[in-house]
Amino acid sequence: MRFLSSSSHVAVLAAALLVGADAWAAETAAPPARADFQDAETGLAFSAPPPLVVGGQRDHRGHDFVIEVDTSDPSLPRAGTSKSLCAVGVKTQPEEVQALSQEALSSPEMVAETLESMRTTLGFMGSVVDIRPVDFGGGARGVAAVTTPHLGPDHANVRQYIAIAETPAYRISLSCATTAAAIDRARPLFDALVGTLRIEGSR
How many C-beta neighbours within 10 Å does residue 174 have? Predict the structure, then answer.
């Protein structure tokens, strides 16, 4: 299934820019803070664990749309130029991926391919602190990484969390940026959020 490799590199780059890429954003009015999100058209659904809350929706190059996830908790600060702590993105899959089952896309071989693609791509952008397989919702399995970027404001103090999973209909990605001091507290929350990210109705 190596045909996914080239698109995976692009996906990792796009996911890494979900937060802190405000020049690409066309944000809609933020709805009242809520814990749950569900999109009827794509089937994207997730629940934000407290103290995280679901924010507004915006456009983003490389994704169909992006949903902000944020918090007012001072112990979970945003980092870099980010206007929100996290962002969830979805991207329509090409036809060759749509033909595959969720079981195939979550196979150990496919997850290992995604992990190596992420390790390589993120390694060009920063130092990979940690990378491992992770369970998404709806039976999807993907990869999550924590990195320290090489560039950007106060980059040595930034920790970026990036998680990607493939489903037949959409690629799901999560990108969060916080500080080095906060990542140990934030990581379990990010992992918990990933565990709820799903495409409802995905086969």
Answer: 28
Retrieve residue 15's tokens: 């996911």
The stretches of 30-180 forming alpha helices (DSSP H) are 95-98, 102-105, 108-125
Low-confidence stretches of the chain (pLDDT beneath 50): 3, 21-29
Copy the structure tokens of residue 25: 């954003």
Q: What pLDDT shows up at residue 22?
A: 43
CATH topology of domain 2-199: Protein Transport Mog1p; Chain A (3.40.1000)
pLDDT of residue 129: 96
| Residue 193 C-beta-side C-alpha neighbours within 13 Å | 33
- Residue 62 makes CB contacts below 8 A (sequence gap 6+) with 10, 11, 13, 14, 17, 89, 91
Name the 3-class secondary structure at 153. coil
Contact 146/159 with Cβ under 8 angstroms?
A: yes
pLDDT at 20: 53
Radius of gyration of the chain (CA): 15
pTM: 0.87
How far apart are alpha carbons 176 and 179 in whole angstroms? 10
